[in-house]
């Protein structure tokens, strides 16, 4: 695992990007997610929050969800992601900043955690479909890589 101080221009991917990489029901979004993750990993710029790894596991292994991946497969994917990505921790400081983000930006708490971990680790770009694409909150810009992959306009190039 790398750490944030050894990388330049790192970019974080949110849970939805990780999930789409394994969601065969959305082939266009799957293709975009795979290309983005592979490109960032190849360039040693891929960052993922511990929160997103936890959410990924929960989504892909839940019997109530459509993906329903076996534990062993999810574990293997997460292990690989931890090897190729800069994994950003949730700390008491990140939680405190997230609570400020809820108040300042009217974010849902889980989205505020994504913003806060990026902010506290000097990550200027977060790829996610959960925020307004192009929105910048206190130095963190959110880009929707799926715009155009079944959405309104052309996709943002990774």
Sequence-ordered SSE layout with sheet pairings:
Blueprint: E1 11-13, H1 15-20, H2 27-42, E2 46-49, H3 50-61, H4 71-84, E3 86-88, H5 92-105, H6 109-120, E4 125-127, E5 136-137, E6 140-143
Parallel strand pairs: 1-2, 1-4, 2-3, 4-6
Antiparallel strand pairs: 5-6
Helix pairs in contact: 3-4, 5-6
Count the beta strands. 6
CATH superfamily: 5'-nuclease
How many domains is the backbone divided into?
1
Counting DSSP H or I runs of 4 or more residues, the number of helices is: 6
The order of strands across the largest sheet is: 3-2-1-4-6-5
Class by helix and strand content?
alpha/beta
Shape: globular
Residue-averaged pLDDT, rounded?
A: 89
- Can you give the helix content as a percent range? 40-55%
What value does the Rg take, in angstroms? Answer: 15 Å
What is the CATH class designation?
Alpha Beta
Question: What distance separates the N and C termini?
Answer: 22 Å
The SSE string, one letter per element, is: EHHEHHEHHEEE
- Biggest β-sheet strands, sense, barrel: 6 strands, mixed
Strand-residue fraction?
5-15%
CATH architecture: 3-Layer(aba) Sandwich
What is the fold named in CATH at topology level?
A: Rossmann fold
- Which spans of ≥5 residues are poorly predicted at pLDDT below 50? 1-7, 151-158
Task: Please name the defining characteristics of this protein.
6 helices; 12% strand; single chain; 158 residues; alpha/beta; six-stranded mixed beta sheet; globular
